[in-house]
Amino acid sequence: MKLLIADDSRVVRKRLSLLLSQLENIEIIGYAGTVQKAIDLVAELKPDLIILDIKMPGGCGIDVLENIKSNGKGPIVMMLTNYSYPQYQKKCIDAGADYFFDKSAEFELAIDTIRSLASFKEFQPNYTKEV
């Protein structure tokens, strides 16, 4: 499973990288600290899963979410944020987020969910290959 981490905090990106690089079937293919970098890397690298924060320079993680889910395809999107207010959760789910976790209270649950997703032997990304 190809994974992209998009979070404005280097500390969070490093922590996620350390935890997730130890999991089988996970390949971290990139990191983004801004909205535009996340949009660019999703288009370029075609990750299977993106971990996405809401608060990011250059806009909002929800902008990234809406951009990558606009065609109905794309990676699995896991929102991992300190802004876990119900209105943000609703907006993210409505925009196509597959998961929504509170960074402070559900960090381990998010890691467990990624572990579970990566363990599917027949994992198939949502992208279709263009000919």
Our estimate of the beta-strand percent is 15-25%
Major sheet description: 5 strands, parallel
Which of globular, elongated, flat, extended, rod-shaped describes the shape?
Answer: globular
The strand order across the widest sheet is 2-1-3-6-7
Task: Tell me, rounded to a whole number, the average pLDDT.
Answer: 89
CATH topology: Rossmann fold
**How large is the radius of gyration?**
13 Å
Q: Which CATH-level-2 architecture?
A: 3-Layer(aba) Sandwich
The end-to-end distance, rounded to whole angstroms, is 22 Å
SS-derived structural category: alpha/beta
The structural domain count equals 1
Number of helices: 5
Task: Please give a structural write-up.
By secondary structure, this protein is α/β, with parallel strands linked by helices. The strands form two sheets. The protein has a five-stranded parallel β-sheet, with helices on both faces. The protein has a single domain, classed as Response regulator (Rossmann fold), CATH 3.40.50.2300. Strand 6, helix 4 and strand 7 form a beta-alpha-beta unit. It contains five helices and seven strands; from the N terminus they run E-H-E-H-E-E-E-H-E-H-E-H. It is globular, with a radius of gyration of 13 Å. The C terminus is likely disordered. Helix 2 runs parallel beside helix 3. 41% of the residues lie in helices and 22% in strands.
What's the helix and strand layout?
Layout: E1 2-6, H1 10-20, E2 27-32, H2 35-45, E3 49-52, E4 55-56, E5 59-60, H3 61-69, E6 76-81, H4 86-95, E7 99-102, H5 107-119
Parallel strand pairs: 1-2, 1-3, 3-6, 6-7
Antiparallel strand pairs: 4-5
Helix pairs in contact: 2-3
